[in-house]
Amino acid sequence: MKRALRVAIADDEPDMQEYLRETLTGLGYQVVCVVGDGQALVRACEAMRPDLVVTDVKMPGLDGLEAAAEVCRDGPVPIVVVSAYHDQEVVERAAEQNVLAYLVKPIRESSLAPAISIALRRFEEFRALQEEAADLRQALEDRKVIEKAKGILMREAGLDEETAFRRLQKLALSKNRKLVDLARMIVETAEAFHPPPEH
Amino acid sequence: MTVSAALAMVFARSARSRAGRLLLVNRRLETEIDERTRAVQALSERQERLLQGERLAAIGQMVTGLAHESRNALQRGQACLEMLARRVADVPRALELVGRVQCGQDDLQRLYEEVREYAAPLHLRLEEHRLDAVLERSWEKLALRREGREARLIQQGGELDLRCEVDAFLLERVFRNVLENSLDACADPVEVSAEWSEVEARSRPALRLVVRDNGPGVPGEKMEKVFQPFYTTKRKGTGLGLCIARRLVELHEGAIEARPGPGMVVVVTLPRKVQS
Known about the structure:
The structure holds 2 protein chains of 2 kinds. Chain A is an alpha/beta fold.
């Protein structure tokens, strides 16, 4: 069975705390903390590392959006806001944060459930895209190093491009190393013989 | 003529002319007093209106705040109601009562939202739009209300230049409120015709929309009443729909009125450009 997603809840109304805890538990989430203000939310998230935060905006001390910014500092966490206010200023502030859904009170289970599941889905997509972008960036970096190593081989051993590349591949295979690691070694070695001019 | 007679004559003449002058001065004074009285009256009326305006603005702010603040209370009610429904899920008689409380809760929520909408300060975000497209969108947004019903909207005059500077979001609301009334008032099949024309209103080029449905309409003496707050013929209406519509149309410097039927006839006139 899939692990239940861990949720942190923040609302300063005891009725709402009980309601959100009960409702989200009923929807199959694991409620890891229920707090009544922004500071407590930040602390709880540091300790519990939830997969999702459901928070009110107007709370004593740090408000929900300020807390959300703090929570997301170490890495994005999907935030669902439930607030009685929808002034433009608040909504704009929410838009700047990792807020994936903004629900205006009064809400009910039938509006909360789909909003959360859509928010989570979007967050997954967002994360997948982020990873893909990181992978692509890495691939591009690797490619640059390999090209450089190939250039060194061509120059130092007088090989043509294809032979140089094949030699790299063969070397990597025989030394049981990743192509990019081997390439990096060659580049570093070459730098030892021909240090780059100092500026 | 004796000296005394001559003197008497001179006195009499000068007295006459003085009396005449006095009369003149008197008359002028009277007019001035009249003007003053009128000015004072106008001033006090204006003051009264100003005060009234301020009072209304204050009430508006209060109501907006009230509606806003009520959301937290409504939310608590809603939360507890849902939890109660879960606790009594196996007691049909209790569940039925919870359902009824939920209806009351929903009505209250809608009422608050509509009152807030009626009283909240509004700012137009004007942009040029084709009004037939705005009307069409309003109709589409009523799709849920039309579900399972036989209803159509027929627009006429689409060949005209229907571009107009409006706040499309607010105008959609106007149209939706008018169309919603037709959906509520008419039996199936509902037919709503919407006819566009180019007119001049207050010596400015304007567009006019005549919406007509095939429902029972409103009797003549009630025609102005439909725009009054909290006037409703529906069992579940708040009586604010057309009232809000009028407010939004007037914000566009336009006019909205009901006309004699058959059916409900609502005429909306909007200037092509809002001046202020």
